[in-house]
C-alpha cells in the first residue's frame, strides 16, 4: 500500500497542470515535474542536482534567492502574483497573440518542506495565470476608456466641465501649497448664435469641433483645454505667469480667427473673445474666484468690440 501511495503521488505530481520544482538551501534543483520540463524544454535529468541559475541564468537571481531564503528562515509560505511580477520563467503561452503578453503570466507559491521540524527544502509551484491576466487587462482597458469618455465632451473630444473643474481644483491646491504661477483663459466664439440661426446647428457643431481642433493643436501638453458649455471654452495654464498667459491668449485668438472654416459649402469666418486671469497670493481665495475673474475679463473683451484678448493683472 505504501508503494502504491508513492507511485500515485509521483503520478499526480507529473500530471498536474501546473509547475512544481523543489530547491535546497543552495538553490539546487531537487525535483522537476513534467509541466516544468515541457514548458522549459529541459528535462528533470538535465536540471536536477544543479543550481537553478546554471540551467536558467536569465532568472531574477537576487529576487528568487531572497524569496527562497525567507521561506527557509521563517518557515512560512510566500506568494508572488503575476500582478507583482508577470513571470518567473519565460515560458510560451497558448493564448492569442493579440492578448498583449509575450510570455506565460505566472502565479508562484513557495512552500516550506520540513523534516524533524526544520525546513530542508522549498517547493515552488508555477500556475499559468495568462488567461486571468488578459481578462484583467481587458477590464482595466475598458474601465480606462469609460473613464476617458466620462471626462470628455461628446462633441469636441476635449475635457468636459466636470473634468476641467477637477483639474483646476487640483492645480489651485498645488499653487496654494507651493506658490509659483497659475493662470487660466475663458473664451467663446463671437456671434455664435448667428451661425446656428442662419446656417443650422449641424454647421454650428462642425464649427465648434474644428475650432477645438485648432486650439488643441496650439496649446502645450500640460495645459488643460475644456468646454464649459455651448460656445464657451476654458484653458488651464499651470506654471504660467500673467504675461505668458496673455501671449497664449493671443495665440489662441489667432488660431481661431486666422482662417474661415469651410463647412457644407459655406465659408464661415470665426472670431473669439478671450479673458485671462492669474491667481494672486492673498487675493485669489478659491479656484471659483479665478474663474470669475477670467469671466469678467472675457466680458470686458466683448464690451470692447470682441475678437480680442483682455486680462486683469
TrEMBL record:
Listed EC numbers: 2.7.7.65
GO function terms (MF aspect): diguanylate cyclase activity
Stored InterPro entries: Diguanylate_Cyclase, GGDEF_dom, Nucleotide_cyclase, PAS, PAS-like_dom_sf, PAS_fold, Rev_trsase/Diguanyl_cyclase
GO CC field: plasma membrane
Residues annotated as domain PAS: 12-56
Residue span, GGDEF domain: 180-313
PANTHER family per UniProt: DIGUANYLATE CYCLASE DGCM-RELATED (PTHR45138:SF9), REGULATORY COMPONENTS OF SENSORY TRANSDUCTION SYSTEM (PTHR45138)
Name recorded for this polypeptide: diguanylate cyclase
Lineage: Bacteria, Pseudomonadati, Pseudomonadota, Betaproteobacteria, Burkholderiales
